[in-house]
Please model this.
Amino acid sequence: MQERLPPLTALRAFESAARHLSFAKAAEELHVTPAALSYQIKSLEEHLGTPVFLRLNRAVELTEAGRTLAPGISDGFQSLNSAWRSAQRLSN
Model:
C-alpha cells in the first residue's frame, strides 16, 4: 500500500460510481467514457492494493474496502464543494 493519495480523478470516479453503483451512470455524470471511468477505478484499486468494487453481470457492488472508503471520499468532496462555494461568494 502506498502512502500518497491516489489521483483526484480516480477518487472522483470512485465517488460517483459508489454513489450510483453503476460505472455507466458515473461515466455519464463525469462526461467520460465507461472505459475511461473503469481505468480510473482500476488505478485506484492498484494504488490501494485491493478491489473497491465487485464486478457482477451488468452491476457493481462495493467491497468491504469500498464501503470503508466511500463515506470519507464523499465527505471530502462535499467539504471541497462547500469551500469552493464560500470562496466564490467572496469574489462577488
Remarks:
- The CA atoms of residues 45 and 51 lie 5 Å apart.
- The two ends are 43 Å apart (CA to CA).
